[in-house]
TrEMBL record:
Keywords for this protein: Cell membrane, Lipoprotein, Membrane, Palmitate, Signal
Protein name: ABC transporter substrate-binding protein
CDD domains to which the protein is assigned, alphabetical: PBP2_AlgQ_like_1
Cited Gene3D superfamilies: Periplasmic binding protein-like II
Length: 556
């Protein structure tokens, strides 16, 4: 047997101890993670021997708990704590995305960050500049699960690259799913059929249907209390659509407000100041004047109110609208039937949409937090759960039962609003389900995610709306994703998503000017010619200088 020199043996011992420490395997009550055998023995899924605390800013979901539980103490939070040993405490909560990021900005400005927080692109840049967050490069390599790494790798480095500066990773980004970018027209199909109207394709079709929904009592209650088209008070979402945004009205004019695009000569332009945007504003102003666009769209505290109440006949939104708000609308009126359409089309009959950036939100860890790896371990745990790969089947069944009983998706109470999935996952699920439904592949070969949707699909066909949890997934895929996969879509990408130096000081004023001008034009408080005044002001207040910065940074 070879006799090793003493200094080599000492070095090997040090390496072994370091490996144990880095993998979180110390079980001495120090708070380091302890392996439990099998998958749990890996750093990605090992549980802390003694519970540790993680303080976060939490985005309150739209769903409402009615079980006596709270946002930070419910079946989902209790399960995640049981398998990770991480006790999540809400430093603060915020309802709605806009309010959440406002609170996040306040926490940044006051240098009072919770231990972990989801931030937007601009906020990430500021946090890196001011050295307020942890470098996660080594933590990610050591603790991220193979599933999480594989999902990020599917973007060919774009997602992690978006959260990296000078070769160091400062955040865990979300991954934009291609299917999330287009805004479809969701429509009360039962009203459409009752009034014997053809499905919509053009602006004129939408106008005709909206007018009928308002005037012809489609809900049959003898009152003129139904609405045509719902709207969002800030008009457009700009990158990733949500409930009742009017982005699709602009896209059909080849207008892309809030996006940086190139004109026919290849020059970088801000999409909100183009002639096409003025055309779209004129159309929306005309719809508002006729009452086709909900006269109170700018007044709702929550955009989805008239949809859930069963008053709205149409609204724009992404493929997943059956998950929310349509699930709540149907729960209140089971006769309601909603379908999605690729409308309006442009003058040449094409369906046009802007695409979301590869990432648009980032999970960061406060500089000095003792257990940055805990944030990665939580992401591993709820990603595995969300992707239906969690091996703790009995516990997963309990959460499925909770979801079925309450209508609340477990993802609503994950600690971070940061779902990640393969960028083409939605289209692939739908294609595989269709193959299985038509006996072209064995259903038993479907991955867990797809198999669950397939099982819901079969159950929904046998007993429609009996299980609202199954109804959500089936209707989202059967109508939303079906439209996306059967429609030729012209996709337009923004050339720039970041922040330039001048934006730091000038952008808030320019955004306020834009929002106020657009809203005033639509509701008739300003004439359409006010758009030209807005463009001139926008340019003079720094817009031209910012455009030059964007052109330089984007290579345009």
């Amino acid at each position: 047997m070879t006799k090793w020199p003493r200094f080599i043996l000492a070095a090997l011992l040090l390496l072994l101890l370091a490996a144990c420490r880095d993998s979180g395997s110390a079980g001495d009550g120090s708070g380091k993670a302890e392996p439990e055998g099998g998958e749990a023995a890996s750093p990605a899924y090992s549980r802390y021997a003694e519970p540790i605390e993680l303080r976060i800013g939490f985005k309150v979901p739209d769903s409402r708990l009615n079980t006596g539980d709270s946002n930070d103490n419910n079946p989902i939070t209790r399960y995640l704590e049981s398998i990770t040993g991480v006790r999540v405490i809400h430093s603060w909560e915020a309802k709605g995305e806009e309010v959440f990021f406002q609170k996040a900005q306040l926490a940044i400005d006051s240098n009072d960050l919770p231990d972990a927080l989801v931030v937007n692109r601009e906020q990430l840049g500021k946090l890196i500049d001011n050295r307020m967050i942890e470098d996660l490069t080594d933590i990610y390599e050591g603790y991220a699960s193979e599933l999480v790494k594989d999902i990020y790798d599917s973007t060919n480095g774009e997602a992690l690259g978006d959260a990296t500066r000078n070769g160091r990773l400062y955040a865990l980004p979300n991954v934009a799913i291609h299917a999330d970018s287009p805004a479809l027209l969701w429509l009360r199909q039962d009203w459409l059929e009752k009034l014997e109207l053809p499905p919509p394709q053009t602006y004129a079709d939408i106008e005709r249907i909206a007018k009928a929904f308002i005037e012809l009592d489609p809900d049959g209650n003898g009152k003129r209390d139904t609405l045509g088209l719902s709207g969002y008070r800030n008009i457009v979402y700009g990158t990733k659509p949500h409930v009742a945004g009017l982005d699709a009205v602009f896209s059909a004019y080849h207008a892309f407000p809030t996006n940086w695009i190139t004109d026919s000569s290849g020059n970088v332009m801000y999409g909100s100041i183009t002639p096409e945007t003025k055309q779209a504003l004129g159309k929306l102003a005309d719809w508002y004047r006729q009452g086709l666009l909900d006269p109170e769209f700018a007044l709702y505290k929550e955009t989805q109110e008239p949809i859930i109440a069963g008053k709205s006949g149409m609204f724009f939104g992404p493929w997943w609208m059956p998950y929310y708000p349509l699930s709540e609308a149907v729960a209140l009126d089971t006769k309601a039937e909603w379908r999605a359409y690729a409308a309006p089309l442009d003058d040449s009959g094409k369906f046009v949409t802007h695409m979301a950036p590869v990432t648009d939100r980032y999970l960061v860890v406060r500089k000095g937090y003792e257990h940055p790896e805990a944030v990665v371990k939580l992401l591993n745990a709820f990603t595995r759960l969300e992707r239906r790969q969690d091996p703790n089947l009995a516990e997963v069944d309990k959460m499925d039962d909770f979801a079925a009983e309450t209508g609340i998706q477990p993802r609503a109470y994950y600690p971070f609003d940061l779902l990640i999935d393969y960028s083409d996952a939605i289209e692939k699920h739908y294609a595989d389900i269709q193959q299985a439904l038509h006996d072209k592949i064995d259903k038993d070969t479907l991955d867990p995610d797809t198999r669950l949707i397939y099982d819901h699909w079969i159950a929904e066909e046998e007993q429609p709306k009996k299980n609202l949890e199954g109804w959500k997934a089936v209707n989202a895929y059967k109508y939303g994703v079906a439209v996306l996969t059967s429609t030729a879509i012209e996709r337009v990408r923004s050339v720039f998503y970041g922040t330039t130096p001048l934006m730091q000081s000038k952008w808030p004023e320019l955004q306020k000017l834009e929002r106020e001008t657009f809203l005033n034009i639509i509701v008739g408080d300003a004439p359409l010619s006010a758009f030209d005044t807005f463009v001139a002001e926008w340019r003079a207040l720094g817009g031209d200088e910012i455009t030059a910065e964007v052109a330089a940074l984007s290579g345009g």
